[in-house]
Every structure is written in C-alpha cells, then in structure tokens.
C-alpha cells in the first residue's frame, strides 16, 4: 500500500543541520558494472543504499553465482525503474555468456532503448525486442562475436547508451570507436564513465566526436563512491526557501566526477553560497542573489531541472530554461508532471521553440497542497521543500524517494520538518 507524507515546518524557518548523503547512484552503478567486468579485480567502496544500486548489485551478484551453475535457460532479469541498470546491463549481458530476458517496470517499457540496441547489434550482439520495437524488454544471447569495431550513435537522446558501450569496450576483442552524432546530452555522465575507467587502468582517446577504447585489461584497484550531488540539490532548495540556513554536507567534494555538482554555481542565482568546510561543504543562504541569469541551460544536468524549476517558481522568478528535451523520457514525462503540479501554486511552464518559460505572475501559496509524484523520486524531493512556504505539503506515494535517496524523509525530520504519514 502506498503512503503519503504530510510535510510541515513549524516555527521560525531557520535550518541549521548536518546531513550525510548516500553515495551517488550514477557512480555506484558504473562501479558495479566495472567491478563485474574486471571479474572482481576492481573493488567498490561506499556503495549507496539507493534502490537502483541495490537492484543492480543484487542482479550482478546472482549472475555471478548462477554462472557457476552454468544454466542454459533464459534468465529473467528485472531492473524495476532503474534506467542506468537497464542500459548498462543491455551491453553487459550482450558480452556475457547466457540467455537473458531483460525487463523493468511498465514505465521502463516506455523508455526508448533502440539507439543502444541497434549499436550493440552492429558490433555483433544477439539482441531483440521481446514486445515493442525500440523498447524493453529485450532478449539477449551472449557472448557477442564482434563483427564491427566502429559504430555511429546518436548522442542527443540519452548519454547512458554511450556509457553502457564504453564500459564493455575494453573487453571486446577489437575494442570500440563510437562516433557521436548530434549534440551529446548529459555529457558529464560520459566524462564520469571515462574517468572511472581511467582510474582502473582503461585509457581512451576522444577526438572531435569520436571516442576510442582499445582492448585492455583492468588494473586492480578500488573505486570509492562520493556522496550524491543530485541528492545535495534538495538541500540547496531547502536553503533557498528557508529564512536562514546553514547546512553542512560532509564528504561532498566541490570538484566532483558528478556534473550535478554545478548546483554550486547555479544556486548563486538564488543567493545560496557554497564554501569548503573541514569535513566537506557547507551551504548558506545569504539572502541576496550572487549571479543573474535569465535563461539557464540544463542540458548537462537534467536531474537538477525539477529542483531548480520548483525553486525559481516558488521564489516567483519568471526565468527561462533550455536543454530540457530529455526530461520527457525519464521516470515520467517530467515536463508534464512539473506543469501539472506547478499549476497548484498558480505557476505555468510554457514551451516555445525548446525554450521553457516560467510565468509566476499568479503565484500563490494555499494553506495545503497535495503533490502527485508520478513514480518519480525527483518530483517528491523537488516539491517537499515547499513546506517552508506552505502550511502543509502532502507528497503522494512518498516511497518513490527510495530510487536514489531512501533516507530523504528521515533527513528532513533531522532538519526540523514534521513528517506525518497517511
Ligand atoms: O549515466 C547516468 O548515471 C545518468 C545519466 C543521465 O541520463 P541521460 O543520459 O539519459 O540524460 C541522468 O539523467 C541519469 O539520472 C543518470
Ligand atoms: C533519470 C534518472 O534515472 P534513470 O535514468 O537512471 O532511471 C534520475 O535518477 O533522475
């Protein structure tokens, strides 16, 4: 049975807290695949408790155990709502010995994967669609016999397809060259993949739009996962909507593999300063804007979009955003979800020629509000901080946060929010 969280904040809106964030699910899910490809030579430390990571870890562990049993039957693998697990496993299982049916939630079956599947087929994978052309579930029979080492791939739909291919590249007999067509979306995630591979001995070259990885052996080592900057973004939001805020986020690094660390710069627009502390970073609300931007491009950090759009709306800033094209194919159509829920505080988000503009002229805060979350963790976490401005914010299906930040509600309580469960 799903439950709703009734979120409120009594008394002065002053936040003074320290929050230890869980590990980045993006780093974890790469580390797990790399460790499996290295056959255990590469170890992983500080694994996240994000459901997407727990799921992938469980799948890889059971595959390791089963390979010892040498099962020939098709093995059903269910990634649930985890996009990275679906994309990374499509490539990983293609290279592995065995027959697999790779599936996920109903929403996962609507998230496109054809670009990755076709690239895998081109290099020799035996992979087909079990239901609808271009979408999960997938039938995969490995190991692939490599037929090509160069493949063209569209870069503007999801960077996860590219990361998935780059991670298996070193174990392919001929290596791999990816020629990226169109503008590369979510580029920092490709950089993260290449940086993590490099730290365990895998070299690459990236010239123009071509990335090449030759066949190479993994070096023994340990990948230590950093706390999650996407999760940190909700604390920036809380700081921005509070009257006063001093929030300490230990172990977080200013310079990070995670592109979402750019929240540090973006939040200057809303008066939030970031400083390095002895243990990590510290954020505070200075009450005055430190930067002005009228159009913000979020192509390199799509997971920050909901957080930033909701903050701007709540602060009544008629800002515009670009780079939001991929939001429609994530956990839900995040544009439609934002439009529906922002309407509840009188704000519209309108698109014209791929520019999305907020109109906050009718912004108002009702006494109570109920936010639908559309099976999307980021809808819950982006809207919950509105409890600093609205007497009671009901977040429907509160368990959605598990996907990336399972202790979100406990952390809100620690910071002084009241959370009642209905
Ligand atoms: O590679 C990754 O870990 C991710 C890449 C991004 O997806 P797209 O490349 O599809 O934008 C991001 O939205 C997702 O949450 C995690
Ligand atoms: C888009 C996301 O995840 P994924 O694509 O891995 O499901 C996300 O965490 O916001």
TrEMBL record:
Catalyzes the transfer of the enolpyruvyl moiety of phosphoenolpyruvate (PEP) to the 5-hydroxyl of shikimate-3-phosphate (S3P) to produce enolpyruvyl shikimate-3-phosphate and inorganic phosphate. Phosphoenolpyruvate binds at residues 25, 83, 111, 160, 334, 378, 403. It catalyses: 3-phosphoshikimate + phosphoenolpyruvate = 5-O-(1-carboxyvinyl)-3-phosphoshikimate + phosphate. HAMAP family: EPSP_synth. Its main location: cytoplasm. GO terms for molecular function: 3-phosphoshikimate 1-carboxyvinyltransferase activity. Residues 11-412 form the Enolpyruvate transferase domain. It comes from Pedobacter punctiformis. Pathway: Metabolic intermediate biosynthesis; chorismate biosynthesis; chorismate from D-erythrose 4-phosphate and phosphoenolpyruvate: step 6/7. Belongs to the EPSP synthase family. Keywords: Amino-acid biosynthesis, Aromatic amino acid biosynthesis, Cytoplasm, Transferase. InterPro entries: Enolpyruvate_Tfrase_dom, Enolpyruvate_Tfrase_sf, EPSP_synthase, EPSP_synthase_CS, RNA3'P_cycl/enolpyr_Trfase_a/b. This is 3-phosphoshikimate 1-carboxyvinyltransferase. Its EC number is 2.5.1.19. Pfam families: EPSP_synthase. The active site is at residue 303. 3-phosphoshikimate binds at residues 25-26, 30, 158-160, 186, 303, 330. Monomer. It is found in: Cytoplasm. The keyword Plastid does not apply.
